[in-house]
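EI: anyone free to look at a 367-residue chain?
SC: sure, send it
EI:
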Amino acid sequence: MKVGDTHYRSIWFDGEAGRVRIIDQRWLPHEFRVVEIESLDEFATAIRDMWVRGAPLIGATAAYGIAMEMHRNASDAALDAAWELLHETRPTAINLRWALEEMRQVLAPLSEGERAAVAFRKAAEICDADVETNRMIGVHGLDLVKQIAATKKPGEPVNILTHCNAGWLATVDWGTATSPMYHAVQAGIPIHVWVDETRPRNQGAQLTAWEMNSHGIPHHLLTDNAGGHLMQHGQVDMVIVGTDRTTALGDVCNKIGTYLKALAAQDNDVPFYVALPSSTIDWTVEDGVREIPIEERDDREVTHVFGRLDNGSVTSVQISPDGTPGGNPAFDVTPARLVTGLITERGVAEASREGLLGLFPERRSAA
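SC: here you go
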């Protein structure tokens, strides 16, 4: 997508410099920074400390982390150590493990002399595939937006609520939940987006709102608890969110607060859709609540807020009393029964085993 007049992906390899470049998302929306990462420790830090975030982008970053390490040391020991270090950075997003497995399966049979070049090609393929996957999510999600638009008066927008940032910043390009929005705008369908702030890191306020603003999409920023009220008053036509891990039975694990939006949507007959690449499906897990590990992050993210002061400086400010600890589960699980449909690159599936297997029949033998 574009920032100003320049097209950016969220991660790319600069062949001339021999470095991987990323958009450092910690500084948005106040500053747009592109940084280079080279060493394995830098890749681990970028993922763990959320310079990059979003399940697809985490996976792509890990893939390039392996490639850069193979350029430095292509031994079996280095490959195994890189896999372990990167895998430990974020426990919930399944794309991290998926991308690391993709890299290891390709590289393990090769000689050390072959590994670096193949690793860079594979990482680039993972990134390119993510872009096309997300584009197709948008194509299929567009059909859902069109169905609602057809019930509207001429010029009346489709009101879409989203939670956290499942935008192009969370992927390599297009985004998952935002891809149908971008496709709708390109198709000339008027939309309006309700953007949840998404405490405690405020990815909605800092990232999704920045994306919407950058692309001229009408939107409003909401407190996290306002969505249910809007649904009660008919101001939300559909909800589209992303997911960091989806079970074989259709449960979805997404940013904390998603479950409450799904409950409110069901109570008010608002369709609740989840947009996801198939790499986000964990076919080994059935019960999301019991089986998906939920990342617990630093309580400072709860007790402090990051923002820009009136004098223009960007800083972190404490909002809680001294001595008050913060609890910070980063994700929650929305049961499949609350999900209207799963928007994938192959189409829209019912949130169930049969629904998913209908789109991914090659998984039946393992089911």
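EI: The longest strand covers residues 191-196.
SC: 👍
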